[in-house]
Model the fold of this input.
Amino acid sequence: MNNSDIDNNVIEVENLVKEFRGLRAVDDISFSVKKNEIFGFLGPNGAGKTTTINMICTLLSKTSGKITLSGHDVSKERNKIRSCIGMVFQDPSLDDRLTALENLHFHGLLYNIPRRVLKKRAEEVLEMVNLTSRKNSLVMTYSGGMKRRLEIARGLLHYPEVLFLDEPTLGLDPQTRNKIWDYIIKLKKSKEITIFLTSHYMEETEICDRIAIIDRGKIIALDTPENLKNKIGGDIITLISENNIKLKEYIKNITGAEAHSEKEDRIRFEVKDSSRFIPKLIKDSPVKILSITARKPTLNDVFLDLTGREIREENANSIDNMRMRMRGRTRH
Amino acid sequence: MKKELTGVYTVWLRDIKRYFRDKPRIIGSFAQPILFLFVLGTGIASSFSVFGGGGGEDFLNFMFPGIVGMTVLFTSFFSAMSIVWDREFGFLREILVAPVSRTSIVVGKLLGGSTIAMIQGSIILLFAPFLKIPITFVIFFKELGIMFLVAMTISTMGIILASVIKSMQAFQVITNFLLMPMFFLSGALFPLNQTVKWMNIVSKINPLSYGIDAMRFVLLNDASLQLYPLWLDIIILVFLVLALSVIGAFLFNRQD
Done:
């Protein structure tokens, strides 16, 4: 790594380890985040994404390793790091007995923003997430999506160098999820800011400039979404035939690709150019093909390719459900 | 330094804002003291004549500072324990990740809880004329000072517990096994110097006893009801505030 690279990096993580009672939640990971990029942490629940973020943002002490953010050492200059990061946590962190504006005001005071500037900025960030008309409503009355937007606005209030978004769309309905991503893309276009996000929704991390795929506390791949997908040998074909075992052999002979069995008697494999391959296969296949689909690889396929498991299987639904309930919960 | 003071102020301001917004809480917080004073107190006072002996009216006067103390006890304790609430609902992370030291957060929280407790206690003092207890401005401000010390003592205990206890379930347990005994064994409802020996001993390690004792002396100016000299009460309370807040700040700092 040469010097200009180091200058370009906002976050440097070296050999980071976090152990909880002997269990390695984060297992010796190293990576760096470049200035003004969208960097994504992708992996199933419990992979160590949030643990890593919490260590970077000074909320959790590390077992060993080194973290620097904007040149500040996380174990020595906590307050310096805290003032140059914005956080949107996985679980809601607003005071819902206060109004949106009061939440922002509270935040601004804690981050030492002068009063006059604070007023202007609060208007500015509220405008960005389209909450201006509801700024004086108690947060209790907000929907889940509105709360998220307010949290993003709050995270930006002190003009942080890095904005952390930990599962920003968890527990939201698909339509609201799309909207949240629209705001994030808009933000990226309008500001010079580094965004560090985590998600276990594969398709959502496609907007990232670079993605680290994390599984069981280790980074198993780190590249641009394009490059990650290119590592898979072309298009993904899934098909159902009358005799899968025989067909698997045939496919291996003509393409060299290993076909895997999937649910409901489907098999799945990768080929370079599916549009030419499919007609040929149907014509020459030794067994009858009942159905066939071809698609471009997604990050989900990348994860499957790297770990042999689907990310979705790992997502304990009960945890998602619990979070949903937490989100809808009000104070008594 | 200015930054830290702003941090203290911000945390304090939030508690005050939330307090004045929470009308049910304000109204509800009168219900209990009034119930104790005018229902339980009057009932016990009139029972004196049944079992022999007089002094019913004196008993209500005796109990009144105890009820002020009770208000301060519960208000400041629950205000400090709201940290557990904030942790549960996520807001604590917003505070913890801000560029403000944990010590400032603790101080802000202590002052917030104490301010609210002083407001609540003062409102109870408004009932003094009903019991024909004379209150001058001087007495009021002296009483306010004692209330502040008691509130700070109890708030620091709340912070310590909130740093150790992570769940809301433990909340109820603490109320039953710590707060109620503290209240009953504080001399708020009956004189401690005449009770059985073990009660007398337990009351000596109860911080609230000293607070109630001081409050009663300031309010009624009756040396015969006094357990300890006023200066001793104050010294013990100041010492407790200092010692407990160091422990509280340490424990709060330590949490991940």
Q: What stands out?
A: Chain B has a mean pLDDT of 89. The longest helix of chain B spans residues 56-88.
